Amino acid sequence: MAIATGTVEGHRPKQTSFEVERIREDFPILKRKIRGKPLIYLDNAATSQKPQVVIDAITRYYSAANANIHRGVHYLSEQATAAYEAARAKVRAHLNAREDREIIFVRGTTEAINLVAYSYGRKHVKKGDEIIVSAMEHHSNIVPWQMLCEEKGARLRVIPMNDDGELLLDEYEKLLGPHTRIVAVNHVSNALGTVNPVRKIIEMAHAHGARVLIDGAQSVPHLPVDVQDLDSDFYVFSGHKVFGPTGIGAVYGKASLLESMPPFMGGGDMIRTVTFEKTTYNDLPYKFEAGTPYIAGGIGLGTAIDYIGQLDLSAIAAYEHDLLEYATRAVSGLGGIRIIGTAREKASVLSFVMDGVHPHDIGTIVDREGVAIRTGHHCAQPVMKRFGIPATARASFAFYNTKEEVDALVRALLKVREIIK
Ligand code: 7TS
């Protein structure tokens, strides 16, 4: 039953090419007008829009199958449990994890990193140990590690980057040593768009016996991810950036590591037995899922994964690459613009500053033209500091964006120039 599985099977056959106009039909919000102009949504790194099938799956769940999971023996509860667990299986398959129990549902990337830092980190990191992050991390992949270091008397070390926004792997090699416990790096930078060589980063960490967490918030929406091929110890992402709902995301962790870790939060569902003397914990993944989870969110995420699964992902990657190149050429062509993040390997992010114009003014003026971009530090203040700027304007793309929309951005930027001379 569609309610139970939240599937888009039967929705349409797997696509073998990529037709953007057809794809756009799936996203109702793209028909909206903003101040009388068509919405041009270029803030996909912050959150992506949702296809109708995802919206429908959530509505159908609440209209016809709402019940608490893992507890009831009644029909609805069994149906809701089956749908939620089917979503977990979809996430497992999408990341090519070995087992469903290696997928833990959380609120999103931020909670995912906090879970690993709190549980794995507090158990394994001791005074004098070192945790390595990179110079281009989102605050969510800095602050939890910093808190852990403060608590344990450990040290946070940082992989530097060059002026193009590429990590310096020879410097990384020098940071690695007997004290390194954890390396935490993003796969794709939200502020620069850099695609990091995470396979190599993981291999180098493992050679020193360190564990690796990859922040996949910006990669899962754009690249195929295979956690077994990467040999990643932990890989985390947010549902809302992969065309699913907000408030749901996942931690992938190798079963052997998750087994050895203490729970993150205590409460219902994560226990096997409770007495006032002693509590024993549930099996994976439930040990890490205390309390009633976001059931509709999990089901919605499963549907989002089905949705991207029936698209031609290699055609999409090529399309997005082409769109980014087109946008980079068009925006740099305006003059007086500096692109922040010029790595050889990039995905779907165009950050820039304009001579004499504060990024916030760029954002406000282009918004009047119906163009939604993000301005600010993008929760990556150390990146701004590294490039000696307070903020950037950032256009970030998804597969439903078009060259015409890039042209509209360029026209809006010309307006900025007209207004602020
Ligand atoms: N890591 C990266 C690389 C991110 O881009 C983000 C969100 C997060 C972690 C946190 O994800 P959350 O879902 O838990 O909030 N990035 C952005 C952004 O670039 N603009 O808004 C949110």
**Distance between the ends:** 60 Å
Which structural category fits the helices and strands? alpha/beta
List the ions, cofactors and other small molecules found in this model: ligand 7TS
Characterize the main sheet: 7 strands, mixed
Tell me, rounded to a whole number, the average pLDDT: 95
Strand content: 15-25%
Query: What radius of gyration results from the CA coordinates?
Result: 22 Å
Can you tell me the CATH class of the largest domain? Alpha Beta
User: At the fourth CATH level, what is the homologous superfamily of the largest domain?
Assistant: Type I PLP-dependent aspartate aminotransferase-like (Major domain)
Strand runs, count: 17
Q: What would the CATH topology of the largest domain be?
A: Aspartate Aminotransferase, domain 2
Helix content range of the residues, please? 25-40%
Continuous helix count: 15
Taken from the alpha-carbon principal axes, the silhouette is globular
Side-by-side strand order of the widest sheet: 4-10-9-8-7-5-6
Instruction: Supply the CATH architecture of the largest domain.
Output: 3-Layer(aba) Sandwich
Compute the number of structural domains. 2
Low-confidence stretches: 1-11
